[in-house]
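Inverse folding, one chain.
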């Protein structure tokens, strides 16, 4: 099997400002390996990826405080397990962008496919277009801000964190939700089992304002949103709620 000598590959040539990686000339594995080999994040803080061409698993497992600009659209699982890095996709993202991310920021300039931010434990995921079905499924502390609409079954079994939607939400929003907070500015086609509309109190306005500011959104007001969350009737099985399970 052919193997590339990283010492002589484009990845280990002279430092770039920013460091530029062309995926038409190197393999994705080489690029991801270079991310994991960062020794001085301050000295290698700006990275640029050219010609991603829908590649899967771009910048997976990034763990340093660096900025990664991906110039084009990506496939499955971009930025999965991200820690500390700021990843900007100048295009759209396939399924599972930001899956299980721990911290840092991921910004998708286009649309995101299904289960964006799934099982995310921390950090901020911003989708400037629309998100497909199951956005924020089983989220565990991540903050997700979507400028457009989200699809059906979003925030299914969402445990904690915040999902902010400036557009509309599809069917079964927040089905079997735990303690995550859902903020929707537009309409909600239907609510899932145990998800109800809740009062917007001052502390929720403050949380929402902070998230909109962090996402760079200044053209809407927190007061324009409705809040949804758990009715807390599914935590333990109750025969009166059998039809909702």
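Residues assigned per position:
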């Amino acid at each position: 099997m052919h193997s590339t000598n990283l010492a002589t590959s484009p990845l280990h040539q002279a430092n770039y400002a920013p460091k530029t990686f062309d995926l038409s000339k190197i393999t994705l594995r080489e690029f991801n390996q270079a991310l994991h080999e960062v020794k001085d994040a301050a000295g290698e803080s700006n990275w640029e990826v050219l010609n991603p061409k829908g590649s899967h698993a771009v910048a997976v497992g990034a763990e340093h405080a660096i900025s990664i600009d991906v110039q084009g659209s990506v496939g499955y699982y971009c930025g999965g397990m991200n820690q500390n890095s700021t990843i900007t996709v100048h295009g759209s993202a396939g399924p599972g962008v930001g899956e299980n991310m721990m911290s840092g920021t991921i910004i998708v300039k286009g649309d995101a496919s299904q289960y964006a931010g799934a099982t995310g434990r921390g950090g901020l995921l911003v989708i400037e277009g629309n998100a497909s079905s199951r956005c924020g499924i089983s989220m565990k502390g991540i903050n997700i801000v979507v400028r457009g609409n989200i699809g059906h079954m979003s925030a299914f079994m969402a445990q904690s964190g915040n999902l902010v939607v400036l557009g509309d939400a599809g069917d079964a929003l927040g089905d079997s939700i735990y303690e995550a907070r859902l903020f929707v500015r537009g309409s909600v086609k239907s609510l899932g089992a145990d998800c109800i509309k809740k009062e917007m109190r001052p502390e929720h306005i403050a949380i929402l304002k902070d998230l909109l500011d962090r996402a760079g959104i200044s053209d809407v007001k927190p007061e324009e949103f409705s809040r949804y969350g758990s009715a807390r009737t599914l935590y333990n099985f109750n025969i009166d709620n059998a039809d909702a399970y």
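The first helix runs from residue 28 to 36. The helical segments are 28-36, 202-214.
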